[in-house]
């Protein structure tokens, strides 16, 4: 069992001359740890959050208790036999089996690095899947070229089903990537492949180096939404608070809500239980969204949505179009002078379903987010506004430069992964990015973020949901349901919602970077 050793942590800071902020734990731990189910979609930093929560859950008086991990079917996830996987990825898998390369398989290895066996893994894969025919050749608008052949592809469905999934195309997203199947309920292929190319081998290296056994934690007979629903009902019956922490799309949670609504007794709730009855013991926290307090960035003086303009005002986000290409990028604006008129008014609107530079987690299954925002169960959101200050830059070097204190499997995994894709032209190097999900997780038991009640802000994520929109290949009604910004703007969110629009740096830390890094350093480098 790993334990957080404060004396060792403080000594390591003094010995190595690390200056800046030192995180100190609360003087007295809470009597009962925060019980958490962590739901994630398999991005590289999702695994950092899983690791950190697992480490923080151990010891004599842990502030948090990870009771289960659920994996998403969409976003950055790889589900077995879906979307051409593993056949298209055999070269990346190398020595690893198909099962090891799935989101469930990698999650099991991460928990094994922490040697944490008290949280089992429940997959969201194959809750709803279908086979579609993808044209092998299309024109620039996504229309099949006459005479082209079609390839059957098995895909995982978002909450809204097949209508929200399409189009799926064979598409080359980056100059350095090969053509691959792209559907709009998942992150682009080059980034998803990084879990196989870098995360999988690095976590295995850590297990091998420290001779740690791989724990058997995957529970294939119970799906993620069922586990979440049963856990919520158990919390309600026992009056033991439970937090659902989602750091990817909220598909699993929305499906769990629907299950309880339809048949609460089947999941252990009293027969006439409503979701609103659970709000006394259930809370949720999400990493997602990008918030803009300036309405003029979103709507003109007449109330028209500004992303309908040929030259829209771009707001905070990380998904956007650039020169007619569907591009995913973190905090990059399109080329100056890019004209989006053809995308908005031409036949291209049938091939693409997003114009916004949207935040990824909310955009990828927006109907699911709309569901949880209208469940009456409290929501707290950690958007890009806060996570932009939780920087990873330099953390790999810090672990590397403290070999005596950081001779642990968790530290080796993070340190080697931080530079695993450097240099890699066209792909964002991990060490330049952010503790997005780790901040959302650790803010549950640390005073890391300034949460405030939602008042009159505008969310800048998801598809253009204005009913008069001309963008997108989905019907206007479906687009409207996918736009959480419109839900807030029109007063169609029933939940209590708090937002973390900023972070709380410790004394002496001007930008919070050292604060979050100190905390993670303490966990991964003092694990005994």
Indicate the percent of residues in helices: 25-40%
In total, how many beta strands? 16
Query: β content, as a range?
Result: 15-25%
Q: Which shape, going by the Cα principal axes?
A: globular
Strand order of the largest sheet: 3-2-1-8-9-13-16-14
Mean pLDDT: 79
- Please tell me how large the radius of gyration is: 22 Å
Count of discrete alpha- or pi-helical segments spanning 4 or more residues:
18
Sheet having the most strands = 8 strands, mixed
Uncertain regions spanning at least 5 consecutive residues:
1-30, 320-356, 456-483
Give the helix/strand class: alpha/beta
Distance N to C terminus: 7 Å
What this model shows, in words?
With 528 residues, the protein is of the alpha/beta class. The chain has helices spanning 6-16, 44-56, 90-93, 103-113, 162-165, 189-209, 224-238, 251-262, 341-345, 360-364, 366-372, 384-387, 395-400, 409-418, 436-442, 476-482, 484-489, 513-525; strands at residues 34-40, 64-71, 120-123, 129-135, 150-156, 168-171, 180-183, 242-246, 282-287, 291-292, 319-322, 325-328, 379-382, 449-453, 458-459, 497-503. Helix 2 (44-56) packs parallel to helix 4 (103-113) and helix 6 (189-209) packs antiparallel against helix 14 (409-418). It is globular and about 65 Å long.
SSE layout and pairing:
Layout: H1 6-16, E1 34-40, H2 44-56, E2 64-71, H3 90-93, H4 103-113, E3 120-123, E4 129-135, E5 150-156, H5 162-165, E6 168-171, E7 180-183, H6 189-209, H7 224-238, E8 242-246, H8 251-262, E9 282-287, E10 291-292, E11 319-322, E12 325-328, H9 341-345, H10 360-364, H11 366-372, E13 379-382, H12 384-387, H13 395-400, H14 409-418, H15 436-442, E14 449-453, E15 458-459, H16 476-482, H17 484-489, E16 497-503, H18 513-525
Parallel strand pairs: 1-2, 1-8, 2-3, 8-9, 9-13, 13-16
Antiparallel strand pairs: 4-5, 6-7, 10-15, 11-12, 14-16
Helix pairs in contact: 2-4, 2-15, 4-6, 6-14, 7-8, 8-11
């Amino acid at each position: 069992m790993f334990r957080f050793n404060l004396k060792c942590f403080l000594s390591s800071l003094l010995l190595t001359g690390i200056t800046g902020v030192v995180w100190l734990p609360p003087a007295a731990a809470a009597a009962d740890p925060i019980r958490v189910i962590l739901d994630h979609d398999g991005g590289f930093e999702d695994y950092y959050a899983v690791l950190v929560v697992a480490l923080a859950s151990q010891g004599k008086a842990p502030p948090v208790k990870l009771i289960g991990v659920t994996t998403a079917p969409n976003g950055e996830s790889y589900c077995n036999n879906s979307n051409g996987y593993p056949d298209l990825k055999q070269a990346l898998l190398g020595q690893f089996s198909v099962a090891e390369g799935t989101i469930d398989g990698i999650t099991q290895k991460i928990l094994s690095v922490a040697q944490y066996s008290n949280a089992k893994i429940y997959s969201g894969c194959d809750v709803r899947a279908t086979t579609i025919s993808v044209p092998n050749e299309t024109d620039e608008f996504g229309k099949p070229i006459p005479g082209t052949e079609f390839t059957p592809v098995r895909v995982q469905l978002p909450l809204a089903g097949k209508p929200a999934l399409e189009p799926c195309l064979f598409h080359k997203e980056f100059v350095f990537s090969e053509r691959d199947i792209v559907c709009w309920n998942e992150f682009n292929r080059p980034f998803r492949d990084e879990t196989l190319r870098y995360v999988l081998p690095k976590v295995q290296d850590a297990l091998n180096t420290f001779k740690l056994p791989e724990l058997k934690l995957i529970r294939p007979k119970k799906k993620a939404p069922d586990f979440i629903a049963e856990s919520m009902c158990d919390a309600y019956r026992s009056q033991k608070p439970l937090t659902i922490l989602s750091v990817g799309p909220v598909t699993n949670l929305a499906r769990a809500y629907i299950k309880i609504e339809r048949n609460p007794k089947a999941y252990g709730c009293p027969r006439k239980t409503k979701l609103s009855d659970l709000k006394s013991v259930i809370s949720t926290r999400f990493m997602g969204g990008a918030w803009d307090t300036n309405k003029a960035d979103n709507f003109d003086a007449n109330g028209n949505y500004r992303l309908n303009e040929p030259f829209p005002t771009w707001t905070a986000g990380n998904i956007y179009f650039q020169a007619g290409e569907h591009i995913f990028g973190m905090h990059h604006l399109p080329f100056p002078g890019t004209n989006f008129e053809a995308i908005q008014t031409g036949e291209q609107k049938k091939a693409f379903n997003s114009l916004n530079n949207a935040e990824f987690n909310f955009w990828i299954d927006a109907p699911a987010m709309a569901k949880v925002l209208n469940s009456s169960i409290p929501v707290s959101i950690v958007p890009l506004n806060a996570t932009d200050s939780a920087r990873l830059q330099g953390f790999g070097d810090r672990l590397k430069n403290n070999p005596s204190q950081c001779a642990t499997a968790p530290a080796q995994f993070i340190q080697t992964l931080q530079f695993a894709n450097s240099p890699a032209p066209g792909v964002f190097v991990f060490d330049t990015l952010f503790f997005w999900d780790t901040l959302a997780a650790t803010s549950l038991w640390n005073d890391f973020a300034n949460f405030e009640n939602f008042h009159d802000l505008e969310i800048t994520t998801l598809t253009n949901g204005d009913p008069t929109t001309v963008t997108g290949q989905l019907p206007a009604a479906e687009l409207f349901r996918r736009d959480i910004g419109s839900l807030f703007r029109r007063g169609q969110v029933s939940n209590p919602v708090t937002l973390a629009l900023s972070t709380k740096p410790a004394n002496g830390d001007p930008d919070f970077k050292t604060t979050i890094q100190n905390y993670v350093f303490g966990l991964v480098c003092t694990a005994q």
